[in-house]
Design a protein that fits this description.
The complex is a heterotetramer, with two copies of chain A and two copies of chain C. Chain A is an alpha+beta fold. Chain A folds into three domains: about 100 residues, Alpha-Beta Plaits (2-Layer Sandwich), CATH 3.30.70.3340; about 160 residues, Sulfite Reductase Hemoprotein, domain 1; about 45 residues, Alpha-Beta Plaits. In chain A, the strands form three sheets. In chain A, strands 1-2-3-6-5 form a five-stranded antiparallel β-sheet. Chain C has three domains: about 130 residues, 2-Layer Sandwich (Alpha-Beta Plaits); about 150 residues, Sulfite Reductase Hemoprotein, domain 1; about 60 residues, Alpha-Beta Plaits (2-Layer Sandwich). The N and C termini of chain C lie far apart (about 95 Å). Classes of the chains: A alpha+beta, C alpha+beta. Chains in contact: A-B, A-C, A-D, B-C, B-D, C-D. Chains A and B meet through loops of A and loops of B. Bound molecules: siroheme (4 copies) and iron/sulfur cluster (SF4) (8 copies). One siroheme sits at the interface of chains D and B.
Chain lengths: ~350, ~350, ~375, ~375
Amino acid sequence: MSTQQPIKLDFGVVHYDLMLPPIIKRNYGKWKYHEIIKPGILKHVSETGEEFYTVRAGAPKFASVDTVRKLCDLADKYCDGYLRFTSRHNIEFLISKKENIDGLIADLKKMGLPVGGTGNSMASIIQCTAWMHCHTAATDAAGIGKSVYDGLFEYFQRMDLPAKLKIAISGCLNMCGAVHCSDIAILGVHRVPPKVIDEIVSKACEIPSLIAVCPTYAIKPNPKAKSITIDPDKCMYCGICYGMCPGVPLADPKNDGVSIWVGGKVSSTRSGPMFSRLVVPYLPNNPPRWPEVVDVVKKIVNVWVDGAKKDERMGEWIERIGWGRFFKITGIPFTDKHIDDYVFAIPSMSTGAQVRL
Amino acid sequence: MSTQQPIKLDFGVVHYDLMLPPIIKRNYGKWKYHEIIKPGILKHVSETGEEFYTVRAGAPKFASVDTVRKLCDLADKYCDGYLRFTSRHNIEFLISKKENIDGLIADLKKMGLPVGGTGNSMASIIQCTAWMHCHTAATDAAGIGKSVYDGLFEYFQRMDLPAKLKIAISGCLNMCGAVHCSDIAILGVHRVPPKVIDEIVSKACEIPSLIAVCPTYAIKPNPKAKSITIDPDKCMYCGICYGMCPGVPLADPKNDGVSIWVGGKVSSTRSGPMFSRLVVPYLPNNPPRWPEVVDVVKKIVNVWVDGAKKDERMGEWIERIGWGRFFKITGIPFTDKHIDDYVFAIPSMSTGAQVRL
Amino acid sequence: MAEKSETPILDELEKGPWPSHVTELKKTGYKGLLALYEQIYQDKMTHWAHGGMVGVPGYDAGVIGRVSDRPDILKDAHTFRIIEPAAWFYKTEYLRKICDTWEKYGSGLMNLHGATGDLQLIGIKTENMVPCFNEFAQIGFDLGGSAGDIRTMSCCVGPARCEFSCIDTLAIYQELTMSYLDEMHRPRFPYKFKIKISGCPNDGVAATARSDLAIIGTWRDSIRIDQEEVRKYASAGLNINDVCAKCPTEALEWNGTELKLNADDCVRCMHCINKMPKALRPGIDKGATILIGGRARGRYGAFLAWVLVPFMKVNPPYTELKDLIKKIVEWWDENGRTKERVGETIYRFGMGRFLRAVGLPAVPQQIIRPRANPFWFYWPGEVK
Amino acid sequence: MAEKSETPILDELEKGPWPSHVTELKKTGYKGLLALYEQIYQDKMTHWAHGGMVGVPGYDAGVIGRVSDRPDILKDAHTFRIIEPAAWFYKTEYLRKICDTWEKYGSGLMNLHGATGDLQLIGIKTENMVPCFNEFAQIGFDLGGSAGDIRTMSCCVGPARCEFSCIDTLAIYQELTMSYLDEMHRPRFPYKFKIKISGCPNDGVAATARSDLAIIGTWRDSIRIDQEEVRKYASAGLNINDVCAKCPTEALEWNGTELKLNADDCVRCMHCINKMPKALRPGIDKGATILIGGRARGRYGAFLAWVLVPFMKVNPPYTELKDLIKKIVEWWDENGRTKERVGETIYRFGMGRFLRAVGLPAVPQQIIRPRANPFWFYWPGEVK
Ligand code: SRM
Ligand code: SRM
Ligand code: SRM
Ligand code: SRM
Ligand code: SF4
Ligand code: SF4
Ligand code: SF4
Ligand code: SF4
Ligand code: SF4
Ligand code: SF4
Ligand code: SF4
Ligand code: SF4
């Protein structure tokens, strides 16, 4: 079996021509405008006059082949056999016949899949594999994601938020869930330096690159043990070293946990893209439902809903009222951890005498 | 003579009580409001009802005792023997009797001293000693200052600029003229690495600190010569090394010259403080009147006067219209030198897809 | 009485209205993973471990090796990264074949999709990999990127279903993917290199935040305005003044009957178009803005991608675009350090050096504002 | 025919309407400097050179040693830095004495004033320094700072003539100067340490840009508004809506008869007060904002000073302020590298470490926005 060879290589990606519904091919590049008929239902109108409907449904990002086949069944029944996934991993049913919409929605309901996520709603939550499948995770993503979804469920199905709400979760600083530019981001954090297991380091790791890769120069050679040492005063628990070398694990059930970030945004609209900013440095890992995390996220969403003007993304709202005010009204304590002390720290300091007291 | 000793030490600064006119003492901390009666003439009104006048005059920052005595004569004649200098080195005559104003102005005119510099006028130009007295200067300050003053003379005496106009000149990167936050800044620049004079370095300079002080790590030890070498690819001609060591001079008549910066501001008003930003990386030293520099400065002032709204400092105006537009309307070429490539470069890059074409 | 569950902790995640991944996991019958995941929840600590180099012969990428540190519960459970079809469109016929194959050789658990874009299939044993790959090959699904290579790309729905799209995102995706298969399958670069393609500045694939090279559709001329439709929005209750107020450059003015645009001031942010899609449309002279250097985390913190080329026509055969990517990747390959993404290499060398190397001009659109420090360099020949 | 000038180049700088420094130089009769300056203009290159350590016995600062590399033209021409009286107020009696002494022992050329604040007297020979100093001592004028010490300070005109001033700038200047004479006259710090005092956020001594520690007057309560006077400004033609529009935080609203202030939103920028000094005044609960870390050029480029203490009461005997300065300077003295200003030391160590060392709390006013990178530290005791 292991001597078997691939039958071909480098054939690349299937052509999208095979995947597009005929109505899309006919109107490709000719779309004129769209409307959101109701949460989860988009209508696109073409210059040719044709109309096209999309029903967007949330789904677990981790799905069984069973469920995927059921989705295919629905697409066959209502969508001439076509569906797509969005860049945030929702399912979109592609409908050329308006009259199919209601039946589809009813069937989705039966399957337990919520319809929504369009317009000014909560978009689906970007998540990485974390405890489901990843060795560097400091927390889970899918489990937190499910808990937050349940806590904010209504907002997926409504469109009366001030603006879009994009949440992301990453199990560790690698940020595969791209938490760095989300309205609300949940990020797993380690808080103690890696343990150095000399036997593994000496056997499995390339020591010079390991030393070079540490951003804070915390790793020093330990020639006697053919290994390394880590200066606990310099290490900020980023895990980059562990990404390269199994001999420096940093998982720690007592100290690992979750941090919360807010105010990021990607689109170039209005204010342009913005980074998510630290608001809660640490909450304990409290599986299976992470109540502390869900509470903070809900609180943040609530103050935003109360305070923001129409079209103000989380970060735009906070930038208007000031970050100090944000901490005040959420009651989240401000600490020295919030103050950047890394490479680009200086441009983030409040220069001049403008102060909100 | 050289064996003589000081009669006392550490007696500190004369008390200001000895220096303040009686009317100021009476109204100290009780001022209620001010008016600018005309360019150069301030009126301050106290809660006690007393009125107090200031006549501000420009003067050469470098003055002979002769001239200073003449200023004292005027102060004795019109100001009960009191005057002050401003933080930008103008002279202020402190007048308790309104009827003295006109006589003073007439006498100042006779002396050739312009009255103005208040409100939305050109403030006096901050300058360092440069070629008048400094060993690190790449250009002169007083000579350029005089030339720019003559070129913009009217603006010192008028108050119809969009906002205050603060110009500063420094002869070298040390920035003693505090050019880093001025509406228009003129900064002397070297453009070739220091020459290393081994005999001086080995005798007069402390080599380890010399090496440590170079921000780009361009200096390497040269143990054979008990001196150092400078990597021309790494040196960006800042002159910090020369500040510590006479053995590495970098004055170079062919390559030294002047750079122009705009848009800086100090006050916390509106936009808050801002740095001056590079607009012309190099103009040749063309003494005694630096026509190229005067031309560029005048051009910049003119486009600002034409384009800015009321109360818009240079930098506020440019930030509103965009830097690209500024380069376009001034016709100043944009080059790779304008793009920051130093420590805080990344936060100055234009992230996202917003582009003005 | 009901049987006692083997996963009492995870079961809690089956409650609540949102579809549960635990339920899905159970449906696959992939017991090992379920048990390991429960163990992890109990220990509050991952039991996954480095999986070493595993893969399909001929490729050095596309499979993420993954084993657990509790082989008593589950041993190897590698991940297949499969290049997604452009904009994640599927005919069910294909999706069903994928399900069948994955059920046969893998765990039956799918990650739909990975954040980079791939169709991720989680949990395959080493010995099943080649047969599984061969079956995917038959239906035309190749492996994607991993490690120091050009990664699997992604593109938004673009012209397929979006009126805003200024470029043919799907065609560009297709063309670039097919052009870089070797670079994708055989890592040889300092680190990963991600390319993402969005049809307009709304940036539907988050290219600005998540890609080393972002291709974002835009237009060079002026927004097209249908004044009649604007008035309709107004009478329907849209606050047009508010739309104008949110324009980042005050380019818009509404006098109650007409919307005036100062096209010179427009920075193509999309806001007004988003608010009035029936009335406003991008111009007709379309192309893309090319951005460089985005990435999460990073040695210096995350970078958002910044403007490299303010406007480029992007039409088949995409010569200009492909030449540029080639030059960028070559320069980075030569100059980048291990685990250094291209944005960081540019930061280390300076934008000026990079621009010279790839033959692009310095333009004001690349920056927010010019440098504030007096520390720059002269190139040979510039000084006497 | 007129005699041929010895300074044909410099003579050009006597033309034009602005008072000429060349004319002043000529008036002093200080031929050596005039000739050297002409030579420099001719050669387009400075002829000044390091002057070595010169000074008044007992002090290691206050004199800038300066010689020329053309001793044939001029040899030594050191600079006396004399601490200016608070806010540069002079009774002519004193200024005349200064002129007399400087004429007697020095060049007769004055630099009124240096950018740091000192009264700078340019051009004294080594042998004249002690007698000259002694005469200045008699009238009460001491030398200021130079090298790695606490530098001569400066303060704006403040309560002496400005209705905006929220602190007694002159008194604070006096007190701090008298407190740090030892630190000023005997350099022992890593580098210079500058303190500047402005009465309000207009920052009339540019403290934000030019001092390591900036003391800037402000208020804690609400701006005082005289509505009647606001209306007068309005009828006199001031565009009050425009004033409101320029408020950085939209804290102001004008309805045509009344100016409403949302005091919670005011960030004390001074703009509205500046525009209507008769109608608006700072509140009555006054104090200062303390900023840290400003400096020009710098190893990393210039730093603008940033907020350290958002609001501090600053009244005699100034204990809180002086304690804070002491702690800051001590920490920096201990941790700073040669030629490292305090802002750079803070940058190197991190604001968190610095705040802990000086015993100040972290508060949101210190930053524009929180960190975007996930790289922070835990202190001993914070983790299990
Ligand atoms: C599967 C996926 C998460 C997901 O469920 O969506 C993922 C999973 C892993 N990522 Fe990722 N990354 C995934 C998208 C991302 C993204 C998002 C994106 O591409 O848009 C990022 C942030 C964007 C970026 O690249 O900057 C991301 C940034 C990282 C990093 C940090 C990279 C860096 O520049 O420092 C690492 C660490 C590394 O590569 O050394 C990493 C490493 C990993 C590894 C391979 C763990 C490791 O160190 O070996 C994870 C494998 C987990 C597993 O076996 O299940 N992953 N990773 C995503 C890939 C699926 C796909 O191909 O479609
Ligand atoms: C389907 C999808 C593209 C795809 O190829 O998959 C898509 C589709 C549309 N986007 Fe989007 N966007 C999609 C991801 C994004 C992303 C990327 C992301 O979320 O990671 C962004 C940037 C997010 C950010 O800024 O953080 C994005 C920022 C926008 C915006 C700008 C919103 C703003 O903050 O100003 C608009 C305009 C609007 O909605 O007014 C927009 C508008 C639209 C429109 C209305 C475009 C159109 O005319 O068809 C589409 C329907 C939107 C809706 O959901 O109401 N789309 N859109 C993606 C759906 C993801 C999902 O399942 O939720
Ligand atoms: C006289 C004065 C310029 C003037 O005419 O106004 C001046 C003159 C010199 N400065 Fe300065 N600096 C003067 C105010 C400044 C200022 C402005 C300020 O203090 O507000 C700055 C920028 C603000 C700051 O400190 O960041 C300034 C930043 C420097 C630097 C760069 C400091 C740094 O942090 O890197 C140096 C170089 C050094 O000290 O190594 C410097 C060094 C010098 C030296 C001593 C040259 C040297 O390297 O030995 C100059 C002596 C020239 C001479 O002999 O005539 N001077 N210097 C100012 C002092 C007069 C006074 O005491 O009142
Ligand atoms: C005399 C002086 C203080 C001193 O102790 O010497 C002073 C005095 C006054 N300043 Fe100033 N400022 C003085 C230097 C400054 C500086 C520092 C500097 O220029 O280096 C600044 C910050 C400059 C900057 O931002 O770059 C400064 C920023 C202001 C502002 C804010 C202007 C703005 O851009 O918004 C005002 C308010 C106004 O004018 O509306 C102001 C207002 C005033 C008022 C009206 C205050 C008052 O009620 O008396 C005074 C008369 C101003 C005038 O000239 O029209 N003063 N003022 C300084 C005169 C310098 C000179 O000779 O030109
Ligand atoms: S973010 Fe961390 S935990 Fe999540 S998949 Fe990536 S590497 Fe694993
Ligand atoms: S966790 Fe990060 S900071 Fe700590 S030693 Fe490893 S690479 Fe360095
Ligand atoms: S800026 Fe340079 S030239 Fe001017 S006084 Fe300072 S050190 Fe000398
Ligand atoms: S001039 Fe500056 S960069 Fe060049 S060697 Fe000297 S200190 Fe280094
Ligand atoms: S990025 Fe633009 S073109 Fe692409 S789907 Fe979103 S709105 Fe449409
Ligand atoms: S696209 Fe954006 S920048 Fe252009 S006019 Fe509309 S709102 Fe203004
Ligand atoms: S800084 Fe403020 S208090 Fe001082 S003079 Fe200027 S306006 Fe008046
Ligand atoms: S002082 Fe500045 S921030 Fe405060 S209300 Fe006036 S303009 Fe607004």
